[in-house]
Amino acid sequence: MTKIIKILGTGCPKCQAMIGVVKDVVTENNIDATIEKVEDIMEIMKYNVMITPALVIDDVIAIKGRVPSKDEVLGLLN
């Protein structure tokens, strides 16, 4: 089943770092996932997130306000 991963953020360095970590984990572990970058502030507000970056997996907020480690992302996706 394909995971839907959304990275909420306006494009700050932390947001860019989170995208890199998530893409690496998905690629390195052959995880079936789509990664979507959400930069629209109105879309971000729908998730009630006040601090970015935020990682949303299958519409559940998993992490907000920090860049996770690869191991942490892998754990969340498994």
Task: Please give a structural write-up.
This protein has a single domain, classed as Glutaredoxin (3-Layer(aba) Sandwich), CATH 3.40.30. It is 38% helix and 27% strand. It contains 3 helices and 4 strands. The chain has helices at 13-28, 41-46, 70-77, and strands at 3-8, 33-38, 54-57, 60-64. Helix 1 crosses helix 3. The radius of gyration is 11 Å and the shape is globular. Keywords: Disulfide bond, Redox-active center. InterPro entries: Thioredoxin-like_fold, Thioredoxin-like_sf, THIRX-like_proc.
Proportion of helical residues: 25-40%
Question: What does the average pLDDT come to?
Answer: 96
Q: How many structural units, i.e. domains? A: 1
Q: Strand count, sense and closure of the main sheet?
A: 4 strands, mixed
CATH architecture: 3-Layer(aba) Sandwich
- Count the DSSP helices: 3
Strand arrangement within the widest β-sheet reads 2-1-3-4
The end-to-end distance, rounded to whole angstroms, is 12 Å
CATH topology: Glutaredoxin
Order of helices and strands: EHEHEEH
Which consecutive residue ranges, at least 5 long each, have pLDDT under 50? none
| Protein structure class | alpha+beta
Anisotropy-based shape: globular
The number of strands is: 4
CA gyration radius, whole angstroms? 11 Å
